[in-house]
């Protein structure tokens, strides 16, 4: 079974702090990795994509990939109440492949 | 860019009837679209891959005769839930990628909340 696993949370983060989300995947053939944010009752929206080992920064978000450890993470700096949502990790094995989604981590940013 | 429109956003239907959901790529052509289903507090579960001009590929356990998929053009895929039952009530979401492929991530439609009564 090819899986993407995340802690379900909820992850409670004080406003202004850093939220750290983790994701592991089992398929070593996975090449592309994505973080999506999903607000309750809404469809997911893409935050970040990462393909190479190391860090990738975009605004307040930083994705980290370690293919040897089969581990992907997302850091949210200066967390805001509007960041309260479920964050989905996804992995894909090829350019036109299907995505395997994790169950998502719920983040709650408290004022 | 890469806008995906999905209609309707919500629908209530009687048990035994059929419901059609449309997914359109508005500013790009999508040879491949994906249909997902999401139950409350659960992750997205891929139902099928919709390929323009050919038959859809269904995931294991998904009844192809119940969930009819048509991808007749490069900008439109439809999912028809036939003979709907209350257990089909769920959030259905489509996604598509522009021609750059999945390496750039898929854009999701806004989703359709189906309630079967």
Kindly report the average pLDDT value of chain B: 90
Average residue pLDDT of chain A: 92
Mind telling me the C-alpha Rg of chain A? 13 Å
By DSSP (H or I, 4+ residues per run), the number of helices of chain A equals 0
Q: What is the overall shape of chain B?
A: globular
Largest sheet of chain B: 7 strands, mixed
- Give the DSSP E fraction of chain B (strand runs of 2 or more residues): over 45%
Overall geometry of chain A: globular
Low-confidence runs of chain A: none
Poorly predicted parts of chain B: none
Termini separation of chain A comes to 40 Å
Order of helices and strands of chain B: EEEEEEEEEEE
Give the % helix of chain B: under 10%
Query: Biggest interface, which chains?
Result: A-B, 24 and 23 residues
Descriptive notes:
By secondary structure, chain A is an all-beta fold. In chain A, 0% of the residues lie in helices and 55% in strands. Chain A has no helices and 11 strands. In chain A, the strands form 2 sheets. In chain A, strands 2, 4, 5, 9, 10 and 11 form a 6-stranded mixed beta sheet that branches. The radius of gyration of chain A is 13 Å and the shape is globular. The mean pLDDT of chain A is 92. Chain B is globular, with a radius of gyration of 13 Å. The chains are: A mainly beta (111), B mainly beta (117).
What layout of secondary structure does this protein have?
The complex is a heterodimer of chains A (111) and B (117).
Chain A (H helix, E strand, L loop, with lengths): L3 E3 L4 E4 L4 E7 L6 E7 L6 E6 L3 E5 L2 E6 L4 E6 L8 E8 L6 E3 L3 E6 L1
Parallel strand pairs in A: 2-11
Antiparallel strand pairs in A: 1-3, 3-8, 4-5, 4-9, 6-7, 7-8, 9-10, 9-11
Chain B lengths: L3 E4 L2 E4 L5 E7 L6 E7 L6 E7 L5 E2 L8 E7 L2 E6 L8 E7 L10 E2 L3 E5 L1
Parallel strand pairs in B: 2-11
Antiparallel strand pairs in B: 1-3, 3-8, 4-5, 4-9, 5-6, 7-8, 9-10, 9-11
